[in-house]
Amino acid sequence: MLLAYPEIFLLASGCAILVIDLFLTQETRWVTYLLSLAALLGCALLTMVVVGMTGGRLAYTFNGMFVSDMMASVLKMFTYITVALCLVYSRAYMTDRGLYRGEYFVLVLFATLGMMVMISASHFLTLYLGLELMSLCLYSLVALNRDSAASTEAAMKYFVLGALASGLLLYGMSMLYGMTGSLELREVATGTVRILQSGDPSSKSVLALGLVFIVSGLAFKVGVVPFHMWIPDVYHGAPSAVTLFVSTGPKLAAFAMAMRLLVNGLQPLAGDPTQFPSGWQDMLIILSVLSMAIGNLAAIAQSNIKRMLAYSTISHMGFMLLGLLSGVVGGNALSAPEAWSSAMFYAVVYVLMSLGAFGMVVLLSRAGFEAERIDDFKGLNARSPWFAFIMLLVMFSLAGVPPTVGFYAKLAVLQAVLGAGHVWLAVVAVGFALVGTFYYLRVVKLMYFDEPQDGAEIRTKLDMNVLLSANGLAMLALGILPQPLVQLCFVAIKGL
Fold first, then answer.
1. Cα separation of 381 and 286, whole Å?
2. Helix-strand-coil percent breakdown of the chain, rounded to 5?
3. 4: which DSSP letter?
4. Is the Cα torsion angle 469, 470, 476, 479 positive or negative in sign?
5. Which residues contact 252 (CB under 8 A, 6 or more apart)?
6. Any bridge partners for residue 304, and if so which?
7. Whose CA is closest to 224, among 305, 165, 142?
8. Cα angle at 451 between 445 and 452, to 5 degrees?
9. What pLDDT, on a 0 to 100 scale, did the predictor assign at position 273?
10. What are phi and psi of 366, to 5 degrees?
11. Which residues pair with 68 in a beta bridge?
12. For residue 484, is the peptide bond before it cis, meaning its omega torsion is within 30 degrees of 0?
């Protein structure tokens, strides 16, 4: 139970903040804000205590339903940082729109709790519990602005499609449970090996069917083609501060979920030339290529920056899958840690870039004005040279231009793909990455070479000013010195 102290602490903190907020007025709402940040800091300290106790080694609790390893601890720490930045960035935006309420903070904290449970799940039920806790909070957050028809519509679409994806995932889990007789991921892995060795064709076909449903449910949560249609609508319809949250933390949880399901539970079904010729790696190849193609091509046509970044998210998630699908080569997983750690590195870097991009959208929005059209960035250099530079770094990083960290993330994933012998896939990925540079550089061109349409002064609070600047400069610093983060991701994956 000691291993789950961060989760227990966050649950207690969320409940306490919910009650305390009832006694606060709008003027004293800053207490809720500070308590929420304190709760995240407490979780970070407890996570470090857990790492100290286990030495970063694999440890289980709650009868094998909850796992603590280096990957879980590292991803949780990144999640705390991400959520804290989201809260800081969104403060002025939410206040201007009358959404700076206690339920916003409580929903964000409970969604974070869902992410933490997903990251540490080693059992189908724990995984599903974390997923639903996170998803239900996200549906509510998207609809937080009740007076906006776009927000309500986006939340409805997200809710209906999310329920469908959860159903697919559960159906796949029930099939695997029926075949292996266990819900625990380690037992599922040994059960699938046993079935593959028995060579029973009917059992193999049920496993394949269950795998299809699992990958489909997973693809929806990660947000890749053809399960991507909720992303542009949700990103566009939700308040920009909520979009900032939806586009960052849940991506780390989705990566963890993919690793737990596909690597911890279903690695025998990755694709073995003799026993299981077309496994989940082949499925991911199709999803990845389609995501990179449709994501990059659809983004070109967008005039709304939130929709453009939504389609860019789809292409980036396609890129992340390249690392996941390069782990097992011909039934041999010797080079898997390098490939999977490149995917983890890409996921962490993408979240950093997304924080910067949507942070800029939130920064430029003010009371009565949403900076969500690409034209709203025109002449930003004339209004604020520093923030134009930060946005330039964000766009260059998303495009994969050296010396930003986005370039190194793409390089790491492409090395993994080439290592797995998929040369054609690397060529396709580079081709679509080049297509993607167009719409990122278009934003840079508008900022530096066009006249400003909006002459209003950019007013920011000091905390957001400092952290958004640090966020942008981190992309440059990590691009020049990526090795510590790469090594951290490798150590995290190695301990699986």
1. 41
2. 75, 5, 20
3. G
4. negative
5. 75, 78, 79, 82, 115, 119, 347, 348, 351
6. 373
7. 165
8. 100
9. 63
10. -145, 180
11. 59
12. no
The closest of 220, 223, 24 to 106, measured between CA atoms, is: 24
Low-confidence ranges of the chain (pLDDT < 50): none
387, 380 in Cβ contact below 8 A?
A: yes
Which pLDDT does position 414 carry in this prediction? 93
Identify the burial level of 459 via C-beta atoms within 10 angstroms of its C-beta, where 0-12 means exposed, 13-18 middle and 19 or more buried. exposed
Q: Taking CA 94 as the corner, what is the angle to CA 89 and CA 100, rounded to the nearest 5 degrees?
A: 115
Which residues pair with residue 224 across a beta bridge?
A: none
Residue 159: φ, ψ to 5°: -65, -45
- Tell me what pLDDT residue 459 has: 78
Neighbours of 59 (CB within 10 A): 16
Both tokens assigned to 75: 């991803």
Between CA 454 and CA 445 the distance in angstroms is 16
Q: How far is CA 460 from CA 306, 366, 383, 447, 465, in A?
A: 21, 10, 13, 19, 6
- Residue 114 identity (one-letter amino acid): G
Output the CA angle 375-381-386, nearest 5 degrees: 125
Nearest to 32 by CA among 132, 99, 101: 101
HSE at residue 478, side-chain half, CA atoms within 13 A, is 27
Q: Is 117 helix (H, G, I), strand (E, B) or coil?
A: helix
CA distance 149 to 146: 8
Question: Tokens 């566009």 identify what position?
Answer: 236
CB 80 within 8 A of CB 96: no
Q: Model pTM?
A: 0.94
